[in-house]
Write a structure and sequence with these properties.
The chain has 312 residues and is an alpha/beta fold. The chain has 2 domains: 123 residues, NAD(P)-binding Rossmann-like Domain (Rossmann fold, 3-Layer(aba) Sandwich); 171 residues, Dihydrodipicolinate Reductase, domain 2 (2-Layer Sandwich). It is built from 10 helices and 13 strands. The strands form 2 sheets. A 7-stranded mixed beta sheet has the order 8-9-7-10-13-12-11. A 6-stranded parallel beta sheet has the order 2-1-3-4-6-5, with helices on both faces. It is globular and about 65 Å long. The chain starts with a strand and ends in a 10-residue tail after the last helix.
Length: 312
């Protein structure tokens, strides 16, 4: 019998994309709530406990409530909110992050789906911290731009229905963005990073950048050393690719929409050897590897299914 999967919050941006990726698959069975009963706690509780796996696509408070309704000890949960990304007892759903992470996800009953910005930032930094190239106490700055879909229904409506004429907007100006604790913990940083997010007038797609002064690093690495460490860390991975130095050198720019519709994450090392400066850049779809794609990948791993299923 195929495992039953319930998406709580399937009408939202992430939930809709997850459902699209799962519909038509024969290796699992999707169960849904009657739209008229969406706010019925009893019916939600019944479905949450009837499912083999639940994907929560809800605001933080609603996710916490949903978890409290689950009494079935066999129900596996993937939470796409920020509620559990640094919580004890939850495994972080970035399978490629470090050795043993995929196995931890496979054995887990509670997995927190990573945020879109953290996927890029952690993807760039964690391998370099583990390799001893970037000291964990180094002050780090992270600059990023996302499509407006990352802001949810309110921001989508603002950009698509004439609520703003902005083509580019900085936000998180008070440096208290909710992704910072997640980035700090999972990248292995001891010093709180400066995170500078922004949004552009396009629907989805994302660039995350970490600039580095190479002279501030104890090992005095070259650009090639940075690229080699990233390439070694992600060798053999299906969804994470590290551009060669030759490919990066041949680029004049990067399109944040370049991986839209995929579950891929691509990492680049740019910079100047003469000036001793590097620009580490992650390219991903904020609704793909940054949200729905990662959730489906985690679901596949947790249920022992083909990790690529629904993601090609």
């Amino acid at each position: 019998m195929a495992p039953k999967v319930f998406i709580d919050g399937e009408a939202g941006t992430t939930g809709l994309q997850i459902r699209e990726r799962l519909e038509g698959r024969r290796d699992l069975e999707l169960i849904s709530i009657d739209p008229a009963l969406r706010k019925d706690a009893g019916e939600r509780a019944r479905l949450l406990n009837a499912a083999d796996a639940v994907i929560l696509c809800l605001p933080d408070a609603a996710s916490i409530e949903a978890v409290s309704l689950i009494e079935n000890p066999e129900t596996r949960v993937i939470d796409a909110s920020t509620a559990y990304r640094t919580a004890e007892g939850w495994d972080y759903g970035f399978a490629e992050m470090t050795k043993g992470q995929r196995e931890a996800i496979a054995a887990s009953k509670r997995v927190s789906n990573p945020g879109c910005y953290p996927t890029g930032a952690v993807g760039l930094l964690r391998p370099l911290v583990e390799a001893g190239i970037v000291p964990s106490e180094l002050p780090i700055s992270i600059n990023a731009v996302s499509g407006y879909s990352g802001g949810g229904k309110a921001m989508i409506a603002e950009f698509e229905e004439g609520g703003t004429t902005d083509n580019f907007r900085l936000y998180g100006l008070g440096l208290e963005h909710k992704h910072v604790p997640e980035i700090r913990r999972h990248a292995g940083l001891l010093t709180r990073p400066i995170f500078s997010p922004s949004v552009g007038r396009y629907a989805q797609g994302m660039l995350v950048e970490v600039p580095l002064h190479l002279a501030t690093l104890d090992t005095q690495p070259t650009l090639g050393d940075l690229q080699a460490a990233l390439a070694d860390h992600y060798k053999g991975e299906r969804f994470v690719e590290v551009a060669s130095m030759e490919e990066a050198a041949g680029l004049k720019g990067l399109d944040p929409e370049g991986l839209n519709g995929t579950n891929r994450l691509k990492l680049f090392v740019f910079g100047s050897e003469d000036n001793g400066q590097a620009r580490l850049v992650a390219l991903l779809d904020n609704l793909g590897k940054g949200a729905s794609g990662a959730a489906v990948q985690n679901l596949n791993i947790m249920l022992g299914l083909d990790e690529d299923a629904g993601l090609n």
